[in-house]
Amino acid sequence: MHCGESLDKWCVALWDIRQRYGQDFTDKLLFYTFQQWQPARTTESNFDAYFMSRFFSGIFVAANDDEQESAISAILKKRGLDPE
Fold first, then answer.
1. Is residue 76 in a domain?
2. How far apart are CA 50 and CA 28, in angstroms?
3. Which of 6, 39, 49, 59 is the most exposed place for a label (fewest CB within 10 A)?
4. Model confidence pLDDT, tens digit, residues 8-48
5. Range of the structural domain that residue 31 is part of
6. 15 part of a folded domain
């Protein structure tokens, strides 16, 4: 795994999710996340919030249960991304 400096938190968090739930789940999660993507004028300062809201839309579709959703939230928090 190689993560760029500007998005390291997301890169590492996504890798953790992939390690725990597998490539198919993570691919599905990101597919649904990017389906929610709209062209916008985002700045680096609000990228995390912008991506996080779409990411949780993806989790809503991809996750099988609340436990899985909670575990993913814990991974995000561990990597410095506050899902709340």
1. yes
2. 19
3. 39
4. 889 999 999 999 999 999 999 999 988 877 766 555 457 78
5. 22-36+45-84
6. no
What number of H helices and E strands is found in the chain? 4, 0
In this prediction the pTM is 0.80
Q: How far apart are the two ends of the chain, measured CA to CA in Å? A: 27
- Integer Cα distance of 28 and 58 in angstroms: 8
**Residue 63: CB partners within 8 Å, gap ≥ 6?**
29, 69, 72
pLDDT tens for residues 62-82?
Answer: 888 888 999 999 999 999 897
DSSP element (H, E) containing 33? helix 23-35
